UniProtKB/TrEMBL annotation, chain A:
It is found in: Late endosome membrane; Lysosome membrane. Keywords: Protein transport, Transport. One of its GO terms (biological process) is vesicle-mediated transport. Pfam families: Sec1 (PF00995). Its main location: membrane. This is VPS33B late endosome and lysosome associated. It is a peripheral membrane protein. One of its GO terms (cellular component) is late endosome membrane. The keyword Protein transport applies. Belongs to the STXBP/unc-18/SEC1 family.
TrEMBL record, chain B:
GO terms for biological process: intracellular protein transport; vacuolar transport. It comes from the Eukaryota. InterPro entries: Spe-39. It is found in: Cytoplasmic vesicle; Early endosome; Late endosome. Keywords: Cytoplasmic vesicle, Endosome. This is Spermatogenesis-defective protein 39 homolog. Residues 74-100 are annotated as: Disordered. It comes from Haplochromis burtoni (Burton's mouthbrooder).
Length: 616, 499
């Protein structure tokens, strides 16, 4: 597992301050409602909350009972209710129901809503409409950033993706700007900011405005450069099957807030166990970035070492034994526990993957990435659909086909869509409409269609507005241009060479040597070139919206010091564990340290589930 | 970093009304309500004071989006800007340029709006303004720059204050021009929260015809509005919007989606029937038609089968009790169900697989896969066999399949087909190497030993690999036909073993 790492990688800043800050802010808010109170927590805030505080912290601040927000009538008898929620209209409506139900028998309680990370006017409007504005007090808990590991920070806002990219709602732009601003004020000033994507550009603007609004303190920078990237710049990468250990664990067991629950099949007992997966897990930290094919070898080697360490006991005298027990045994036991968990997980992964012909699936993905034997790929996907194999998996392959091929031939599109609807339900008409809107699954358009549509609509409205329309359409009709991008950036290494996965030579190792993730390749290129110069053709294929700016106060005489090699990469709309592994690899190769900030950790299932529309 | 401190709370704590409002008994309700009202009135006064206070205390700074009130901004900002350059440059965003509305603001500003919207926004300010004090003391501006009380905020300033969560009244934006200018500034600020806030105000103060018309040329605002309406489940207005903008297909899909919330299957079927008159694309209309036909049929099948099951006369339902209702299942699941329970029925019945295949134009391959899986599940190997033969009966005895035989084996094996069934199909796999692998995997000894076809390749015998064959002998049942076969081969002097 030894990589040819550069030894001079700079140290990462300490992000635990973010947790402390968030905790203190929450405590302050809880103290604003003195006395005993019951706390209702939005379901998807429970895990993030767990990472920064625990029940006793809450109890210390007079939280009596804890409830999950379930949109059901409350049974609490407390005369003070506090709601810790995301700014979602449905949740606020439920709170209105709670308050209005109390009003009927004239029950009087005090209510407080804490929105996190911020409130929205639309939520307040609901309170007003329901006649309870003023009956509840409102606060904001600016809990923007949750460090999941030394180098991963999550905003824990999975809805960012569909709100921004599917609905076209820019409500989270300022939130992203504020998150960046928080990092800036704690670890900045930044020297340079690079970015690509519409949302990135807007988030940058929002951050810049906040910088101008606020004070600027002179401090030692701990983060050098920043790279902002929209998820829709690269949809191919998150749609590929993950084969690096951490990504694979996420695909199969779903890592939630840096924690995974291993079921009985992994633990080889009758109970499940929750494990934190981060750099503190000594076993995990050594295999997380490895291609899965290396993991077994590593684990068995590790098991042998462990056996040897245990075996040392033999022939020890009492005194040695005492030292062994007091000094080594605990560590060994800990390692033993972790090792058996990860071996169990690997076995379970193997079982699941062989059951569904993983090899064949990967082969199809690789062919799609290379652009070979597309007909065979289509019939493979068709068979997948016909046999009603996983609904998400079929959709994933369809989308991958569409993006890599720049859309499906109308004939194929119709036939595959019809078969999909037959296998998984006509309700998915709505899903297909979403996917088309996002450009993930589209019919190939004959060349001129776009301009025709533009001029047609242009005539309908007056000329003044035509310009705006063009903009709107260009985002709608976004082409993926994957094939051209892949050629330009050499994303698909030549197949005739053997790829030794144990000694990766580039970031392609995260996909078995078949594909270098586009997102990470862009980051590599821009850092190398210190901007977008020379990448004009690439940015054109990516529909533009690239930028590279230098802060006047950021560039100082210290020049190329360590800080310059600490790069913060912010993914707007989510990033995968595979991408993080690829960036870690790039960091080791080039002597950078990457900090990944993401609106949420994503993978193909999460991404597509957000677009399913076959439920109420 | 604490953003908000609750002034309201402070107020309650210091107020003499406190005891009444929150801790009173029920029988004092009416008195309580009166007090609450009184308090609220006072609060409103207090807020107004706050508001004024706020105006005096707080200013704003930042870049202008257009050219509006640039001069005002310059004066406001010069005090801070003079000594520091903005750290990072502004980058060009795709902001439409905003033309300054020439209509005076003075008239509307006379009507200082304090109804609902204004109220809540001022209130929110009361909640947050103290944080501004803590947060950004540098934002205070000199006395000389006070505005003429509340409502003189320009659209741009208004947007900025909205972004910062500060108090602002939108009521002064009364002319259409003013409203649109405000909206365009909100769009230019790229803050969805503010765009939606302005849209809520416009929805309240403009008739929908005008609002829709203006949204048509503002795609960003339009998408925010659509999202807002769907989040607030304002289906009716959303439909009107789509129709008004000629987005017929969107409207149709949206209406179609409503069927998901109808639980009664008959009502759902009727609803789907009505959907058939919606302006879907031709392609989608066919799918919706199928959806309706399918549900209609499922209802009939469900009724009949439930009776059959209860009656206890039909063997298949006794042997394999149904696990779930067939209602609302996808077409292929329905086909599978019918292949399972109604396989032999004549084509005339609703539940006949052939009828279903016909009605919904199911592809040959799809039908084949489903029937195969269903019959294999029942271990009806004769039916399975017939599936391959029936379609090529003109003198050919060879089995043909629209599906690769590898896949066929896979399906059979997943339904735990016995070896003697499996091996028939393994033998038909084209690729020799694959055939051998499958044969080994599924323990089809005959094929491994390969005596069946003359042109068989890559078997142990062909490989002349005596060691492997010997090893294999150990795995077969003692005294079985397989063992005898192997012994024959091993003792055959004709074969020149390579080892």
């Amino acid at each position: 597992m030894a990589h040819s790492a550069r030894r001079d990688s700079p140290e990462l800043p300490d992000f635990s301050i973010l947790k402390r800050l968030a905790r203190d802010q929450l405590i302050y808010l809880l103290e604003q409602l003195p006395g005993k109170k019951d706390l209702f927590i939005e379901a998807d805030l429970m895990s993030p909350l767990d990472r920064i505080a625990n029940v006793s912290t809450l109890k210390q601040h007079e939280v009596d009972k804890l409830y999950k927000v379930e949109h059901k009538p409350v049974i609490s008898t407390s005369d003070q209710l506090c709601f810790l929620i995301r700014p979602r209209i449905q949740t606020v409506k439920w709170i209105c129901d709670v308050v209005n139900t109390d009003k009927v028998p004239g029950k009087s309680r005090r209510y407080k809503i804490i929105f996190t990370p911020q409130k929205f006017y639309a939520c307040e409007a609901v309170l007003e409409e329901q006649g309870i504005f003023g009956d509840v007090s409102i606060d904001e808990w600016p809990f923007y950033l949750l460090p999941l590991d030394d180098d991963i920070i999550s905003m824990e806002l999975p809805e960012f993706f569909q709100d921004n990219f599917l609905a076209g709602d820019q409500r989270w732009v300022r939130t992203a700007g504020s998150a960046l601003h928080l990092l800036y004020s704690l670890y900045g000033p930044f020297s340079k900011v690079y970015g690509i994507g519409r949302c990135s550009k807007m988030a940058y603007e929002s951050w810049r405005e906040q910088v101008e609004e606020g004070e600027q303190k002179a401090r030692q920078a701990e983060i050098g450069n920043v790279f902002l990237i929209d998820r829709d710049v690269d949809f191919v990468t998150p749609l590929c099957s993950q084969v690096v250990y951490e990504g694979l664990v996420d695909d199969i067991f779903r890592i939630k807030c840096g924690c995974v629950e291993f079921g009985p099949d992994v633990t080889a007992s009758d109970k499940s166990v929750k494990v934190m997966l981060n750099s503190h897990d000594k076993v995990f930290s050594e295999i997380r970035n490895e291609h899965f094919s290396n993991v077994f070898g590593f684990l068995s080697q590790k098991a042998r070492n462990l056996q040897t360490a245990y075996d040392k006991r033999r022939g020890m005298d009492i005194k040695q034994m005492k030292t062994f027990v007091s000094e080594e045994l605990k560590g060994l036991k800990q390692e033993h526990r972790l090792l058996s968990l990860h071996i169990g997980a690997s076995e379970s992964i193997m079982k699941k993957k062989t059951k569904q012909d993983f090899q064949e699936l990967l082969k199809t993905e690789h062919l799609l990435l290379e652009g070979f034997e597309i007909r065979e790929c289509i019939s493979y996907i068709e068979e997948h659909i016909n046999r009603q194999v996983s609904m998400i998996e079929s959709l994933r392959l369809l989308c991958l086909l569409s993006i890599t091929e720049n859309g499906l031939l109308p004939k194929d599109y119709r036939s595959l869509k019809a078969q999909y609807l037959q296998s998984y339900g006509v309700d998915h008409l709505l899903t297909f409409s979403n996917l088309r809107q996002l450009g993930l699954l589209v019919e190939q358009q004959p060349g001129e269609t776009l301009t025709v549509m533009e001029s047609k609509v242009g005539k309908l409205v007056n000329d003044k507005t035509a310009g705006k329309l063009t903009d709107a359409f260009s985002s709608l009709a976004k082409k993926s241009n994957f094939r051209a991008l892949s050629r330009k950036l050499n994303l698909v290494p030549k197949t005739d060479e053997e790829y030794d996965l144990r000694v990766p030579r580039d970031m392609a190792y995260i996909f078995s040597g078949a594909y270098i993730p586009l997102s990470c390749k862009l980051i590599e290129q821009v850092l190398e070139r210190d901007g977008w110069t020379g990448l004009e053709e690439v940015t054109r294929l990516l529909n533009g919206h690239e930028f590279a700016v230098t802060g006047s106060s950021g560039v100082d005489s210290r020049g190329k010091n360590d800080t310059q090699r600490i790069i913060l990469v912010m993914f707007l709309g989510g990033c995968t564990y595979s991408e993080i592994s690829a960036l870690r690899f790039l960091g080791r190769e080039k002597g950078y340290k990457f900090i990944v900030v993401t609106t949420a950790i994503t993978n193909s299932s999460r991404l597509l589930e957000a677009l399913l529309d076959n439920h109420v | 970093m604490i953003k908000s401190k609750v002034d309201e709370e402070d107020y309650w704590h210091s107020s003499k009304f406190k005891a009444f409002t929150f801790d009173d008994e029920d029988d004092e309700l009416s008195r309580l309500k009166e007090s609450r009202q009184a308090v609220n009135n006072i609060r409103r006064l207090v807020e107004e004071d706050d508001d004024e206070d706020d105006v005096e205390r707080i200013s704003w700074s930042g870049e202008p989006v257009g050219s509006i009130s640039w001069s005002v901004k310059e004066t406001a900002a010069s005090s801070q800007r003079a000594d520091r350059e903005p750290a990072f440059p502004k980058i060009s965003t795709d902001t439409p340029s905003i033309s300054r509305s020439q209509s005076g603001y003075s008239l509307s500003s006379l009507f200082k709006g304090k109804p609902k919207v204004g109220n809540f926004q001022t209130f929110s300010d009361a909640l947050t303004d103290s944080s501004v004090r803590l947060y950004a003391p540098e934002l205070r501006k000199p006395k000389s720059e006070y505005k003429d009380y509340v409502s003189d905020w320009s659209p741009e300033e208004t947007v900025q204050r909205l972004q910062q969560g500060k108090a602002v009244s939108l009521e002064r934006f009364r002319t259409l021009q003013d409203k649109l200018l405000l909206l365009d500034h909100a769009i230019a600020a790229h803050d969805g929260n503010v765009i939606t806030a302005v849209l809520i105000y416009l929805k309240r103060t403009l008739c929908k015809e005008v609002l829709f018309r203006e949204l048509e040329s503002r795609q960003t605002a339009l998408r925010h509005f659509i999202h807002y309406l769907s989040e607030t489940q304002n289906q009716r207005l959303l439909l009107e919007l789509h129709r008004a903008l000629g987005r017929a297909e969107d409207a149709a899909l949206l209406q179609y989606k409503e069927h998901l919330s109808i639980t009664d299957e008959n009502k759902r079927r009727d609803f789907l029937k009505n959907c058939l008159s919606l302006p879907f694309s031709a392609e989608d209309l066919a799918h919706v038609q199928d959806h309706y036909t399918l549900l209609e049929r499922q209802i009939i099948i469900e009724v009949t089968d439930r009776q059959a099951e209860r009656g206890g006369k039909v063997e298949i339902f006794q042997k394999f009790p149904r696990k779930a209702l067939i209602l609302n299942m996808p077409l292929i699941t329905t086909l599978y169900y019918c292949c399972f329970y109604h396989y032999a029925e004549p084509e005339g019945t609703f539940s006949s697989p052939l009828n279903i295949r016909q009605t919904f134009k199911i592809s040959e391959k799809q039908y084949f896969v489903t029937a195969l899986a269903a019959r294999a599940k029942l271990k009806a190997w004769l039916d399975v066999d017939a599936l391959f033969a029936s379609r090529n009966w003109l003198g050919f005895t060879r089995k043909k399949s629209p599906l690769s035989f590898q896949r066929v084996v896979d399906i059979l094996q997943k339904n735990s087909a016995p070896t003697h069934v499996l091996q028939d199909y393994v033998a038909l796999v084209d690729d020799g190497e694959l055939r051998l692998t499958l044969a080994q995997k599924h323990k089809c000894h005959d094929i491994v030993i390969s005596v069946r076809s003359a042109d068989a390749v890559q078997t142990y015998r062909d490989m002349k690999d005596r060691q492997l064959l010997l090893g294999y002998r150990g795995k077969v049942v003692r005294g079985s036909a397989e063992e005898r076969k192997i012994d024959d081969l091993l003792s055959n002097p004709q074969i020149r073993w390579k080892n």
